[in-house]
Write a structure and sequence with these properties.
- By secondary structure, the protein is α+β, with helices and mostly antiparallel strands.
- 22% of the residues lie in helices and 35% in strands.
């Protein structure tokens, strides 16, 4: 068995604003896992891909938006997920889909290597150790990019994870 690190070294990157069209739902992590909400939304988005004519690529984005709540715990507290495609800014969503825009922002980016079921280790690294060591605070959302390297049940799976960083004025 190889001793491969579960993730690449985190780095701060700037990304421009983006707009996503896709499927959305609100639940906590337990509900998402038990009801397979993410898997169902992903399959819906893939099946309806051709309806999203203004998509900028075939990469699927999973955007997670968290409430501003002291002691937020994703295991029990509901948050909103958007699973879809990045589109040009002024695009109307197909019937039954949602559209949401996200601002230009600095992110801490890390690539997760390995099974999707082990992704929580990478999230824990960024939200815990990395934030503490770098004196930064997360904003209210993060996202994953599922491109051609996305093979959730295979050891050679790769997922780029971006955690939005709060601006310095927002951190105080």
């Amino acid at each position: 068995m190889s001793n491969v690190s579960p993730s690449a070294e985190p780095a701060v990157v700037a990304k421009p604003a983006f707009t996503i069209i896709g499927v959305t739902f609100t639940a906590n992590l337990v509900e998402i896992m038990e009801q397979k909400l993410g898997k169902k939304a992903y399959e819906t988005v893939l099946n309806r891909k051709q309806e999203i004519v203004s998509r900028l690529s075939d990469d699927v984005y999973l955007v997670q938006v968290y409430p501003y709540k002291p002691g937020f715990n994703a295991q029990v507290d509901a948050f909103t997920q958007y699973i879809g495609y990045v589109v040009t800014e002024e695009t109307a969503p197909p019937e039954g889909m949602a559209v949401r825009s996200f601002p230009e922002r600095q992110y801490v980016k890390v690539t997760h290597y390995g099974l999707e079921s082990e992704l929580s280790r990478t999230y824990d690294l960024v939200y815990g150790k990395w934030m503490r060591e770098n004196g930064r605070h997360p904003d209210s959302f993060d996202f994953e990019i599922w491109d051609e390297r996305y093979k959730p049940e295979q050891p050679d799976n790769e997922i780029d994870l971006y955690v939005a960083l709060a601006n310095s004025a927002e951190e105080s």
